[in-house]
Write a structure and sequence with these properties.
By secondary structure, this protein is of the alpha/beta class. The protein has helices at residues 20-23, 41-53, 79-99, 111-116, 121-134, 147-150, 187-198, 215-225; strands at residues 6-11, 29-33, 57-61, 104-107, 139-143, 158-164, 169-170, 173-174, 207-210. Helix 3 packs parallel to helix 5. The protein is globular, with a radius of gyration of 16 Å.
Length: 227
Amino acid sequence: MSQNILINCDMGECLNPDPDPIIMPLIDMANIACGGHAGDDNSMVKTIQLAKKFNVSVGAHPSYDDRENFGRVSQKVTIDELKKSIFHQIEVFTDHCFDNELKFNYIKPHGALYHDMMIKKEIMDALVSIVMKINPKISLIVPAGHEEYISDYTNEINFYREVFADRLYMGVNLVKRSKKGSVFDSPEKIVNQYKFFKCLNDYPIDTICFHGDNFASVQALQELSKC
């Protein structure tokens, strides 16, 4: 049986060429970079308006403050510094959503922050506290298949459980990007993995991510739109 799973994509990352106009009509959820690893006021507004045009749900996509490594390297910062940075990113994003009369529905940490929250309890604590402060009704995106890591928080906030169409897995864990073949470069392979996850019932999945900076993923989304 196929699950009703939403497609999400990381957007507003100021890529050249910009894939966002092609991707936006093909997805359900846009994770919008808000200045940590990429993005600025102009890109946030542009992406929010594009999402509104195509009736796509939007979420904040905060990161470690690390443009040099595109947010994909863990940073040595205090929890107070991290909370201040993430809250600022989301606050700016929230203001742009308000100005464009669009509510945002979730937060998806980016890159190293996404991975660190699942192995460092203090970071998950920080993110949950930020959600509680901003709006307990918004959701936090986390990797699917790791219920033991979020069980302490399920009575406090909502979670979206996520898998990736274009990444290699070892069990329920992503293979590190540094490993050859960890990011799929074949649209056919990405489409097949997407279909596999759609039919997988071993653990709950709410959303499947396609990366906008992976041209093969953009092609895969276009192929799926024809189905």
